[in-house]
Design goal:
mainly alpha; 145 residues; 63% helix
């Protein structure tokens, strides 16, 4: 039996980690060592991958097809992206307003209504779509099933 959520989790973590490292200049890194940055990006990528899996399950429920990664439909893609974007905007909004959260650098473009950074919003369009392509293109019988 195929486990597309496993592929989404693995590719999600790896792809999100690259994005997390790339987007570091858009965040305030005052006092962060390289190890701190890698640790923070790893935690962020872990959360991103978890959110991609949750979004995959939501989309599967919407279209009643656990294997929808092989049969993309507008409804599945919309549910997948909308779930991730909604959670991302909420988490980013809470994080930038909370003492436990993170701070944007001056280079972060922001969405004017919420103040949420556009880089994390763009992440939740670009990275999850790349992850779906990677998860979809795995041949049957490979180790990522």
């Amino acid at each position: 039996m195929s486990k597309p959520e496993v592929r989404v989790a693995i590719f999600g973590f790896l792809t999100a980690f690259l994005w997390e490292m790339w987007q570091m200049p858009f965040y305030d890194r005052a006092g962060l060592s390289i190890a701190d940055a890698v640790r923070g990006c790893s935690l962020g990528a872990f959360g991103d991958a978890g959110l991609m899996v949750l979004s995959y399950f939501v989309a599967a429920r919407v279209v009643d097809d656990h294997e929808w990664v092989h049969r993309w439909t507008p409804q599945a893609l919309a549910a997948y992206l909308a779930t991730g974007l909604t959670v991302t905007v909420i988490v980013e909004h809470l994080a930038i307003k909370s003492p436990w959260g993170w701070r944007y650098s001056e280079t972060m473009p922001r969405e004017p209504l919420t103040g949420v950074g556009l880089v994390p919003i763009a992440m939740w369009v670009a990275v999850p779509l790349v992850v779906l392509v990677l998860a979809r293109n795995q041949p049957p019988g490979n180790a990522l099933q």
